[in-house]
């Protein structure tokens, strides 16, 4: 009874928290939109005083495109003030997309106007290029998007829309493909991209689409991309449908590696069936096995020819060094590995057993490998054992590696021992290496003591790295909640106040101490002020473009050792 | 006891059996990496023999062997193309283009069957490769080299600082650009806007899709990449949008803070009229930017369609090359890159920005130029003054006296005043730190390089078998005839499908027959019917000449007056 009551209380608490978080989320989104709207309104005002017509047009375009996220109708009104046809067309296209949901005729009008504006471009190549870009941007409107490119041939325009929609994984691409008559290549690419986007969630449908592809190359590529998103046993079956032995082997090899965790026996058996470079496949399985069953992995490695053995051993040793320094040392003593593998193994080992890593690095014969390994180990042990790190740097003989080692160790110990770090830079014989390290240290110090950091940065000659680090230090201060005035002296080393403020301002959007709107008043150039406020609005709305991780594509790159053939 | 009895009976039976022809066997008399002298015994005068080597991994066959009276015969590594001849190899399309022998001799790694005769030659690891038409070389901070072969299967090969092969990364498609960070991690820019990252040991670490669009941080067609190793930034160009953007090593956008809009290139992203550069109107405008390079002095070089622009990363400003706004068309020269003057020294049509060394010297290779016989590598001082212009006919010698054949390359590795580049014979030349390409450097890799080619000194006698041939084996090879039309075919494959081939009156490129002895050629049309001999003209390479080969190449000229499509050839050794 008591347990039930406790469970009930827990459940209620969970529900309450979920509701609260949800409500807070909605509230914060709503507040965020309001604040972003204020930034954009101020940006729009600023554009009114921009002297150069090109700058004014560009700034208004950016305001309008961002405004679409908040109020597409207002964005549409803003477009009327944009002078340059290409800017107006882009803004119109964005607005057309935004209002299509609730006012289709107006959306179509906007698109037609955008298309007409682009016809003013005198150079035909440029004109057509702009029209294709525009079509791709409004491809979410499907058939309605055609209004944006009145001059393009129908098939050309349809192809642009299809490919852009398929690239986004928009299911509408397939409906359009049924309606439109496009080249077989465009159809193949549409099926391919659609199939790949469905591979993870609807594999049967993905394979059905892939089955429509007529080009052997596109089909092989599609099946490969699908296979990388499916469980290993499915991928192995798909490999059989790929005629290109290189692609087939890559699929099998990847599937074998991925199945190590669930079924090592099957993984090894699959690796042995890889037609192209089977030893590389076995080596990869052994490496994957190495993180779970080292002995078994090493038994597999022993079967391999020397080059594959060395490569796999190096990778296993580098992994093992993180958990068992002694075993890693024994492995490195047993099988020769590349200089890179040895260095990486010692770097990993240094975190667990700095003395052992240092001893092994010192035991290397003189030469480039010893120098680079000593420097890397010095850097790796610097935070835990600064004394050992400095000793290792002193043992470096080549000016290049001594400079690099000293700079790396100095960066690591600067937080705890600024003076020690700066004096260590005296060992760096390469002036620029030392100055870059001083700039990095200056930026580090600035996070605790902005004035001290600024002085160090100011002591360096004007250079791209001084500017970059000074600017980054100013940004970091703002992100940590400092006021603009605390960051500006640092930013002054990077650029003129207006330009610095233009880029620093978006960092204030989450500040509790300073409003971007107030900060914007300090930017005298209206163009820079407008751009800064647009960026602030974008950050507030969370609409900044970001690169997206793509593990399926990554798996298509296959490392092999036996390039020499059979 | 019973076992002894059985053995004795067997021995007696063997002795009492009628004398059968003794099975020939061979013993190794002399070994070199490229030739094996063996004695075949017993050996019948005038008979032909076949020697086969099988070690479980390799299998080679030498046939039609005529031993001397004592049974001695030499098994060479590849009778079609001797090492000394390979170094003279010129081209299938022009004498300046190196040959790619991937047609019949590749190992299964490229999905093709190796020929049944001869030992394959190889240079950069791939059996059958001499050197790809386009190659790019980069050196990481640890002294390792990454070599890109712009030829299927697309791969990046890693060598250590002594040019010892480490491993290769097989790519799903061609590579647009690659570079390493300060830790030796490799970043690769792939077509279709994605980037992958790999550890120094070849482990796949990460991949990112670049967002599509025209807003900051977005791309339409990412085309070039360079990494500022010391600063920790990646610069990425977009050939469609004409801009270069900066990112962190985790692919977070890092706008260039000295430029209002944050990227190098014009804010309006205006598409440039093809090939023009007008300093009055195009300041800061990038026309189809692709390759990028950094000089270590805070300058970014951007290779546009016909010119190179230079930017100061400390200010974001465009810098001139001496008195010229750009290096190339519209700057250091103004004649059209499509006119004959493109062949003049200091001029070009389309270029590779091969690299910038630590002295700020700029290396530019001919990418496409109809007005030069051999693709050149031209070296310019930081102020745009031409320092030298080299092609394979210029005399450059390695310190061991071997000739070095300099040609335009897509990318070379530089460290301070030192540069490393691939020469036309498929070797890597380490130029002395002289500030210009000069004699006295060291050659690495290339034909005969240890580990890259089957080393005949490693042959074990027990893996050799001999048999007498009943008759001479007629070697035969077949493939597709390609015309001159597509420049991409310079590194193409004779077996490539779906290509429009010879146009009326056109000649084919020189085709390697891989037969290595006098042969005849027959041609067949798409339906498999033999084309009448009167419809074409065949030229054979009958003595060592242009290609340094013998009895290996031929080309055909269509004299039928009709265009040909998908014409196949069958080459067969003469009786």
- N-to-C terminal Cα separation of chain B, in Å? 58 Å
Silhouette of chain A: flat
Task: Count all strands of chain B and give the number.
Answer: 39
The fraction of residues in strands of chain B falls at 25-35%
Query: Which homologous superfamily in CATH is the superfamily of the largest domain in chain B?
Result: TolB, C-terminal domain
Task: Indicate the structural class of chain B.
Answer: mainly beta
Largest sheet of chain B: 5 strands, antiparallel
**CATH topology-level name of the largest domain in chain B:** Neuraminidase
Helix content of chain B: under 10%
The CATH architecture classification of the largest domain in chain B is: 6 Propeller
The helix tally of chain B amounts to 2
Q: Could you tell me the mean pLDDT of chain A?
A: 91
> What is the multimeric organization of the chains shown?
heterodimer
Largest interface: A-B, 85 and 86 residues
> What is the mean predicted local confidence, pLDDT of chain B?
77
Uncertain runs of chain B: 10-19, 78-132, 447-453, 485-501, 544-550
Helical run tally of chain A: 32
Query: What would you call the shape of chain B?
Result: elongated
Q: How would you classify the helix and strand content of chain A by structural class?
A: mainly alpha
Strand segment tally of chain A: 2
Rg of chain B (CA only): 28 Å
């Amino acid at each position: 009874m008591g347990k039930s009551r406790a469970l009930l209380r827990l459940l209620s608490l969970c529900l309450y928290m979920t509701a609260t978080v949800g409500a807070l989320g909605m509230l914060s989104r709503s507040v965020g939109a309001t604040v972003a709207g204020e930034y954009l309104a101020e940006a729009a005002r600023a554009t009114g005083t921009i002297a150069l017509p090109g700058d004014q047009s560009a700034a208004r375009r950016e305001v309008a495109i961002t405004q679409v996220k908040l109020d597409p109708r207002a964005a549409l009104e803003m477009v009327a003030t944009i002078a340059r046809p290409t800017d107006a067309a882009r803004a119109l296209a964005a607005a057309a997309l935004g209002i299509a949901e609730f006012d289709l005729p107006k959306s179509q009008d906007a698109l037609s106007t955008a298309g007409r504006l682009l016809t003013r471009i005198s150079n035909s190549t440029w004109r057509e290029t702009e029209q294709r870009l525009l079509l791709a941007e409004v491809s979410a409107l499907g058939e309605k998007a055609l209004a944006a490119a009145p001059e393009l041939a129908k098939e050309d325009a349809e192809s642009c829309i299809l490919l852009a929609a398929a690239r986004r994984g928009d299911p509408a691409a397939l409906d359009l493909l049924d309606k439109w008559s496009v080249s077989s290549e465009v159809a193949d690419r549409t099926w391919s991209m659609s199939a790949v986007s469905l591979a993870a969630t609807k594999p049967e449908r993905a394979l059905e689409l892939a089955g429509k592809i007529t080009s052997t190359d596109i089909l092989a590529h599609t099946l490969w991309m699908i296979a990388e998103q499916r469980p290993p046993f499915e991928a192995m079956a798909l490999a059989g449908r790929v005629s290109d032995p290189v692609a087939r082997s890559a699929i099998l090899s990847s599937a074998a590696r991925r199945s190590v965790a669930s079924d090592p026996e099957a993984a090894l058996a699959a690796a042995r069936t890889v037609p192209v470079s089977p030893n590389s496949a076995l080596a990869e399985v052994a490496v994957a096995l190495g993180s779970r069953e080292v002995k078994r992995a090493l038994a597999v490695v022993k079967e391999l020819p020397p080059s594959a053995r060395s490569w796999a051993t190096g990778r296993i040793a580098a992994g093992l060094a993180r958990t068992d320094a002694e075993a890693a040392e024994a492995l490195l003593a047993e099988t020769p590995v590349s200089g890179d593998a040895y260095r990486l193994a010692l770097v990993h080992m240094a975190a667990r057993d700095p003395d052992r890593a240092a001893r092994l690095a010192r035991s290397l014969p003189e030469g480039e490998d010893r120098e680079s390994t000593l420097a890397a180990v010095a850097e790796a042990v610097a935070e835990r054992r600064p004394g050992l790190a400095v000793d290792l740097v002193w043992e470096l003989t080549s000016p290049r590696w001594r400079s690099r080692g000293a700079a790396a160790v100095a960066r690591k110990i600067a937080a705890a021992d600024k003076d020690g770090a700066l004096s260590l830079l005296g060992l760096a014989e390469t002036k620029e290496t030392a100055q870059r390290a001083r700039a990095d240290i200056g930026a580090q110090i600035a996070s605790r003591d902005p004035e001290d950091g600024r002085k160090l940065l100011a002591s360096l000659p004007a250079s791209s790295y001084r500017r970059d680090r000074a600017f980054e230090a100013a940004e970091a201060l703002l992100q940590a909640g400092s006021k603009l005035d605390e960051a500006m002296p640092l930013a002054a080393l990077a650029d003129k106040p207006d330009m610095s403020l233009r880029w620093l301002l978006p960092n204030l959007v989450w500040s509790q101490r300073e409003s971007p709107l107030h900060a914007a008043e300090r930017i005298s150039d209206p163009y820079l002020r407008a751009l800064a406020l647009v960026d602030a609005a974008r950050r507030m709305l969370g609409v900044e473009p970001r690169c997206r991780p793509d593990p399926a594509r990554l798996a298509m790159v296959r490392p092999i050792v036996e390039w020499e053939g059979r | 006891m019973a076992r002894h009895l059985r053995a004795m009976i067997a021995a007696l039976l063997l002795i009492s059996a009628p004398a059968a022809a003794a099975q020939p066997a061979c013993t190794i008399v002399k070994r070199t990496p490229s030739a094996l002298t063996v004695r075949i015994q017993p050996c019948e005068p005038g008979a032909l023999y076949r020697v086969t080597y099988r070690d479980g991994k390799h299998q080679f066959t030498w046939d039609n062997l005529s031993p001397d009276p004592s049974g001695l015969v030499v098994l060479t590594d590849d009778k079609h193309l001797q090492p000394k001849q390979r170094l003279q190899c010129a081209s299938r399309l022009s004498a300046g283009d190196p040959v790619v022998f991937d047609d019949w001799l590749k190992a299964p790694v490229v999905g093709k069957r190796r020929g049944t005769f001869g030992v394959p030659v190889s240079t950069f690891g791939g059996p059958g490769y001499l050197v790809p038409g386009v190659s790019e070389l980069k050196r990481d901070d640890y002294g390792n080299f990454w070599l890109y072969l712009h030829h299927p299967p697309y791969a990046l090969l890693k060598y250590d600082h002594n040019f010892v092969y480490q491993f290769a990364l097989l790519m799903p498609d061609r590579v647009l650009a690659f570079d390493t960070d300060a830790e030796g991690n490799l970043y690769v820019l792939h077509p279709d806007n994605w980037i992958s990252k790999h550890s120094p040991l070849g482990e796949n670490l990460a991949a990112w899709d670049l967002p599509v669009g025209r807003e900051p941080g977005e791309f339409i067609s990412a085309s070039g990449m360079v990494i500022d190793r010391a600063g920790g930034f990646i610069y990425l160009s977009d050939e469609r949008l004409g801009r270069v953007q900066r990112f962190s090593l985790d692919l977070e956008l890092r706008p260039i803070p000295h430029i209002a809009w944050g990227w190098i290139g014009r804010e309006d992203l205006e598409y440039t009229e093809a090939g023009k550069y007008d300093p009055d109107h195009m300041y800061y405008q990038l026309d189809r930017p692709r390759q990028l390079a950094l000089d270590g002095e805070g300058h970014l070089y951007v290779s546009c369609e016909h010119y190179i622009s230079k930017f100061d990363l400390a200010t974001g400003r465009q810098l001139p090359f001496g008195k010229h706004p750009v290096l190339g068309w519209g700057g250091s020269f103004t004649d059209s890159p499509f006119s004959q003057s493109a062949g003049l020294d200091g001029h070009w049509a389309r270029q590779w920005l091969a690299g910038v060394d630590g002295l700020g010297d700029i290396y530019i290779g001919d990418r496409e130029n109809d007005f030069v016989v051999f693709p050149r590598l031209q070296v310019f001082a930081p102020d745009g003054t031409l320092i030298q212009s080299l092609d394979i006919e210029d005399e450059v010698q390695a310190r061991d006296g071997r000739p070095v054949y300099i040609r335009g390359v897509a990318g070379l590795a530089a460290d301070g005043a030192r540069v490393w580049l691939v020469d036309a014979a498929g070797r890597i030349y380490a130029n002395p730190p002289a500030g210009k390409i000069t004699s006295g450097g060291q050659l690495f890799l290339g034909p005969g390089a240890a580990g890259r080619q089957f080393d005949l000194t490693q042959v074990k006698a027990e893996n050799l078998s001999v048999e007498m041939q009943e008759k001479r084996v007629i070697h035969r090879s077949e493939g597709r005839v390609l015309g001159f039309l597509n420049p991409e075919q310079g590194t193409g494959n004779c077996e490539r499908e779906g290509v429009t081939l010879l146009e009326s009156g056109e000649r084919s490129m020189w085709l390697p027959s891989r037969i290595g002895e006098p042969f005849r050629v027959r041609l067949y049309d798409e339906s498999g019917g033999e084309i009448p001999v009167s419809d074409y003209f065949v030229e054979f390479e009958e003595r060592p000449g242009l290609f340094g080969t013998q009895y290996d190449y031929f080309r055909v000229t269509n004299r039928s007056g009709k265009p040909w499509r998908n014409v196949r050839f069958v080459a067969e050794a003469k009786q």
